[in-house]
Structure formats: C-alpha cells, structure tokens
Amino acid sequence: MPGRIQSVERAAAILKLLSGRSRRVGVVDLAGELGLPKGTVHGLLRTLQHVGFVEQDPETGKYQLGAAMLHMGSSYLDGNELRTRALNWSDSLAARSHEAVRIGTLHEGQVLIVHHVFRPDDSLQTLDVGSLLPAHATALGKVLLAYHPYVLDQLEAAGLDAFTGATICDRDRLELELGRIRERGWASDIGELTPSQVSIAAPIKDRSGMTSGAMGIFGPPDRLLVARQPRGELVAYVREAAAAVSRELGAIPWG
Amino acid sequence: MALRERYVAAIDQGTASSRCLVFDRFARLVSVAQKEHPHIYVRPGWVEHDPERIWRNVEEVVARSLNDARLEASDVVALGIANQRETTIVWDRATGRPLHNAINWQDTRTEPIVRELVGEYGHEFFRERSGLPVATYFSGPKLRWILHSISGLQKRAERGEVLFGTMDSWLIWRLTGRHLTDVTNASRTLLMNLHTLDWDGELLDALGVPRAMLPEIRPSVEVYGEAGGKLAGVPVAAALGDQQAALFGQTCFSAGEAKCTYGTGSFLLLNTGDRPVISSSGLLTTLCCRVGEEQPSYALEGSIAVTGALVQWFRDNLTLIASAPEIESLARTVEDNGGCYFVPAFSGLFAPHWRGDARGVIAGLTSYITKGHLARAVLEATAWQTREVVDAMRADAGLELSMLRVDGGMTANNLLMQFQADVLDLPIVRPNVAETVSLGAAYAAGLAVGFWPDTDALRANWHMAAQWRPNMESAVRERGYRKWRKAVARTVDWVDEDDEDDET
Ligand SMILES: Nc1ncnc2c1ncn2[C@@H]1O[C@H](COP(=O)(O)OP(=O)(O)OP(=O)(O)O)[C@@H](O)[C@H]1O
Ligand SMILES: [Mg+2]
Description:
Oligomer: heterodimer
Bound molecules: adenosine-5'-triphosphate, magnesium ion
Strand content of chain B: 15-25%
Structural class of chain B: alpha/beta
Helix content of chain B: 25-40%
Helix content of chain A: 40-55%
CATH class of the largest domain in chain A: Alpha Beta
Number of domains of chain A: 2
Largest sheet of chain B: 7 strands, mixed
Radius of gyration of chain A: 19 Å
Number of helices of chain A: 10
CATH architecture of the largest domain in chain A: 2-Layer Sandwich
C-alpha cells in the first residue's frame, strides 16, 4: 500500500466524530478527543469548512457536519439499489414474521419508504414505496436517527409533532431513546404514529459501517406485542434480516 | 428432543451467474450465495462461457451457502438443479474435459447453418417434430457448429467418445457421473420429438448429430443419483430449465396458469396441460415438466432474448450508470421517454418475430433526448416486448389473463413494473420469493424425495408480496404501442449474408 496521507486521515477522523454527535462540538473538545494539537485541528476544520463538509455556528463557534457532507451521506446508497439488494431477505422476513416489511432511508429529515413487501396473507394491500414518514415517530425513523444524530437539529427546528399520546416530542427524551437504540441495536414504535400500530426495525449497514437504511416490520399490537413489549422472536427475525442485508452490502458480520 | 430441521438446496446455474439457495420446509429462504462468471466475447455475435469455471463457481456457491447457514450435507434432504437453457457443451467421455467453450444461447454464429436448414427442410419440418422454429437460439445448430469446427470430432462423437450436454447435463455429470438430461432441457435442443419425448431420428439426421453422444432423457423430478463433494450423499433429485423451474416455483401447476421471469432475458410461459399446443403466432411449444413416470405437461413460451441484459449493456458499455438498479433513478429524472424507443435486437429478434436478420435500433432520436430518456426507453423496451408475447399468447391459446405473475431480478424495479401493468392493462403480481427459479428447483427436488407431500402443499406457500395496478389511459397506451411497433419494423433486414465474411 502506498504511504497514507496523515492529514486526510485526520480530517476523516474529525468527520466521523462529528457524524456521531447530535450537538455541535468545539475545537478544544475535538482536539482533546482526537489527541491532536488545537492548532492542527483548527487548520483542518478551516479547510473542511471551505469545501462545505463542516459548518461553524456563528454564535457559539462550535462545529457540525456541513450540508455538502449530509447531501453526500443521503445519496450514498441509491434507494433503488438498496431495494434490489434487499429483495431476497425482505421477502424472507415477511415469510418468517407473517407481517408486512418496509425499508426506509433518510430523506430531508423524514423516512422515505424505498421498499415494501406485503403481509403474506393475500389480503388487499397497496404498495407505499415513495411515501414519507416522520422520523421520530416510527421504528424505521428512530433507527436512522440513532445512527445519524446530526439530523436532530434539523428535526427539532421543524418541530417534533405529536401524532398520538405516545409520540416522543421532547428532544431530551428522544436522545435518551436513541441512545438505548444504539445500545441494543433495534428500535420499536408502540402506537407512536398510529394508536393501533406497532413497528420494529433494525439498521442496515454498508461496507463502511454507515447505516444506509433501516428495515423492519409493522402490524397491530396484538400480533407484535406480548406484555406490551415487542415479541422477542420478531425482534430476532428483524435483526437477522437486517444483518443479512448488511452482509449483502459488504458490512462486516454483526459489525 | 427438538425435531431436527431439514432443508432443500437448489443450484441456479444462470447466464450471468451461478447461485445456490437453501430453503426450509415453509419455502423460506435460509441461505443464498452467488457468483458471476465472465462472458467470453470472441467476436461480434459470439458469446461463450468456460464450463470448468462454471463448475468451480457452482462448487464454491454450494459451499458458501451451506457454510453461511452452518449446514452440513446431512441437513439437506435433496438438491435440485435449474439452469440456463440451450447453452451447449461438448466434453470428452474419458477425461471429462470440455473440448470447446460452452456456446451460449445468445450466440448467433450459427446463422448460416440456420439459413441452410430452413432452405433445405423449411420451418414446418422442425416445428412439427420439436415444437420450435429453427433459430440460432437452440442447441442443435450450436452442436452442429462444434462438430464441424474441430477436426475429427464427428468421428469421435459417432464412437461415443465425446458427449454433448446442456448445462444440466454438465452439472449432473460432474455431480453424479451420469450422462443424462431432463425433458425440459431436451425440449430446447431442436433434437427431441415433442410427442415421443425421445431423440428424433430425422432431426438428428438433419443436424448431423450422432445419437451416441446424446444424454439419456429423463423426467424432471426423479432421483438421478447422489452428489459428491460438499454435498456428499445428497440425492440429486430434480433438473429443470430455469424458466420451467420458475413456472414450478410460481406454482403454475395447472393448465391456464402463466408467469413471466425478468432476468438476462424475459420468458413468459403458459402451462397448457397434457397436450402440446403448436403456435401460429411465433411462440415456442416446450415441455413444462415431467414428474417421475407421470404424464408430462406442456407449455407455450414467449422467449425474449434481451431485457435485463440491456440494462447491463447500458451500465457496462455506455457506463451511464454504475449499477443496474440506478437505471430507475436515472429514468425518474424525466417524465417520459421523450419520443425515444430502444429495440434491443442484439441477437436478432426472438418471440414473436424470430428474425435472425434484425439488429438493435434506437428510434426517435432528436436533440431533445437526454440520458434520462434513454434510461426510460431501456426499461420500456422490456415492457413492450412482454406486451408482444402476451398478445401472441392471447392469439394462440385464447388466453385471457386476469393478472400476470412475475419474478426475477428486474421485478425490483418499481418504475418498470408499474409501466408493465400500464402497457398490459393488467395487474402485475410478484410472489413472496423473487428467486422462483431456485424455489422451483427446490420444490421439484423436495417432491421427489417426499419432503413435501404434493403440489397442493406447495401452492399453500404462494403469497403476494407486491402488486402494481394499471393506471394509463388507453389512448396513451395505444400510441406508445404503435410507435414501438414502428421501431421494431426498423430493426429487420439488417444482417446481410456476406457480413460474416468481413470478420473472418
Ligand atoms: N433494479 C433493477 N432495475 C432494472 N434491471 C435490474 C434491476 N436489478 C437487476 N436488474 C437486471 O436484472 C438482471 C438480473 O436479474 P436475475 O438475477 O433474475 O437474472 P439472472 O438470473 O442473473 O439471469 P440469468 O438467469 O439469465 O443469469 C440483470 O440483467 C440486471 O441488469
Ligand atoms: Mg436466472
């Protein structure tokens, strides 16, 4: 391998760090966490800012990922590509869980449905590929937010609407929930968008370890819940299917 | 003690890749491994594969799919094989080594042989006996070409020292050591008599093929032997051409049931029950399946050579997209095709036209056309070609479909599936397993060993995974179809008899 360029590696480390934070970070903290001199980090930030990969808040002087970076992130994996690569395992998930399956990606702070497999009971259902769902009130959306927390600012600015009594509308509570989702690797929504609907979802990760989509099932509480919690075997099916799609995309197994 | 779960494995040896899928008792996918192999383009119109490489890939995907699911051969009750059809291999009986690259079904080098055969015997001679028109597509002319091109081969073939087989035979030979083929594959050679289900003496004479080199024709669902290697001891229990396997996987077991599979090409097959229907509209008559010693069932087929392959071509040769699915994103950048139509007659036109002298055309080009319009035209070409074969089915079988069952890789394309519903004016339905080719091979093998009791048990597994409903004004549809047909008319009569001479 030819020699690696240190400053590119350092710039990448800054971007990775910022992409994992929901709040802006100052130069001093960044330098501390990366173990680099403040002057070096500052120089790198100036360059990244120049190309639009980071943005500086004019009031606090703190940094966050820039629009150019966010745009690249969201267009990184084409939704049509994701659907094609996920086709086999989303069919299989529907067959195992006996529920409808959806795959979503982040699109301007909302969940864009890129794939939908009918519940396998031959009842009348309509494809809802292309529709948009609120991110903070669905399992798909919460998974995506958990791994792309920098979207939260944008979301909060637009307002966290209440759809039911169970919707999480408070930013701090939402952050707590997202932390839990990151810990256990899956999300659920229990009547948070529609009172009589439950959804369960897990992340689809690509080769670089980025969460490029979320995959999950949805259905009525009496089928998806036991003792008011998502059924263990359904959670396992969802996680296995999402991991299988991740493997298909080249992610390290269970990484 | 928990009952031990058992599985069925399927090999899908396709045009572009080889796959191994494992299914459980409820027909749910447990594991999948896939590996592509290169096409060898010797010169324009010539398409070959390396049979040894394909065999290695098959071994590799079998091993990978078992390993991924942590399965041993003893967990697998049966192996089914589905394969790209017509592709022709000749190998040495003693060494087991191929004597020539496999000549792919898309290959058009046998155009001069076909012209000769038509001149000497006429199409009817072949159609009455084999159910097929004479075309470069089928194995017979390819075998004739190989026998002619290697000196001394004809003599060795007469002595039975060299063997012919389609991909099923090649794999079964390597797996079990037996030289045989199933009826569905044999029905694509132009050498089998559709009524006796045996090699036809007159057809063999016409093509100059010695009987001694041909495999034994067996039912599609039957235990042929035991596999070796990674699958040691597993019964090889079914073989079907990939399109017939897909029909089986879609559980189209009764007369009147049809499906269309969208892969490299697209193939619409209609089960016509226990009697062959001879087409007068440019369809093929072919075997549907034969289960053990039961009566065989027949099918009418509309074969379209180039559909997904056009998307690949758009990706690899024009490099306007980086992956096949991206074509949908590109196509969605525009509202419509801008008046542009693309007829991909790369190997001539197959059903319902059968014009070997046709070559591809992009019609309606103006300075207005962008790559987005071209992407649309590429996708629409699949839908319009399918419309043509559905119309031929209507004419031949008096068939009135109430919906069309679809499967294959291109069904992941929502824009295409919606457009297909629009131009057929029919609902399009995709089942819960898009890999119906493998599922069909697994079903057939599972039936052979009693893993599933009967076809009713299999029907119960079929569930709708997606549906697209037609939503296009009939005037728009008819205008589009008219333009499509005008574009098709511009592809024919392109190849001249002396074209070959320039290249040799
Ligand atoms: N999203 C998509 N949009 C359009 N075309 C697609 C899409 N995904 C796959 N394809 C096309 O579908 C084909 C792959 O489908 P599939 O896997 O069913 O075919 P295949 O089994 O490889 O074909 P064969 O059996 O002939 O080898 C490729 O030709 C590819 O170009
Ligand atoms: Mg195939």
